[in-house]
């Protein structure tokens, strides 16, 4: 007896859409964590925070090069997460539509 595991285009599109959504959620978590002044040191928590930073910063740095933070001092407003999320939503729509055919 053999099991046929066939993936349809819709399955692949759903998977790719979910990956985009997970990355958007990671960026939102990164934004929320930037508002917390100091996190207590805990090795497990530090590993999670480092993972989120190392995963999202390369993408957000693309926008930080083009769009510097608004304002100055400790109150500078970084718009790169907002622009990055908007771009991800647009890319998600395009890529999922292309996969679906």
Secondary structure topology:
Blueprint: H1 9-34, H2 43-66, H3 80-100
If you had to describe this structure to a student in words, what would you say it looks like?
The structure is a single chain. The chain is mainly α. The chain is 70% helix and 0% strand. It has three helices and no strands. It has helices at 9-34, 43-66, 80-100. Helix 1 (9-34) crosses helix 2 (43-66), helix 1 runs antiparallel to helix 3 and helix 2 (43-66) crosses helix 3 (80-100). The longest helix has 26 residues, at 9-34. The two termini are 33 Å apart. The mean pLDDT is 89.
Which parts are unreliable, with pLDDT below 50 for 5 consecutive residues or more? none
Instruction: Work out the strand percent.
Output: under 5%
Q: Structural class per helix/strand content?
A: mainly alpha
Order of helices and strands: HHH
What would you report as the Rg, rounded to the nearest angstrom? 18 Å
From the spread of the alpha carbons, the general shape counts as flat
> Could you tell me how far the N terminus lies from the C terminus, measured between alpha carbons in angstroms?
33 Å
């Amino acid at each position: 007896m053999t099991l046929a595991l066939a993936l349809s285009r819709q399955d692949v599109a759903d998977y790719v859409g979910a990956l985009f959504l997970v990355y958007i959620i990671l960026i939102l978590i990164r934004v929320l964590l930037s508002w917390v002044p100091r996190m207590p040191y805990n090795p497990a928590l530090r590993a999670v925070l480092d993972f989120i930073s190392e995963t999202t910063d390369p993408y957000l740095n693309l926008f930080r090069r083009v769009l510097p933070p608004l304002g100055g001092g400790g109150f500078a407003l970084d718009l790169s997460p907002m622009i990055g999320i908007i771009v991800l939503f647009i890319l998600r729509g395009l890529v999922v539509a292309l996969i679906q055919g």
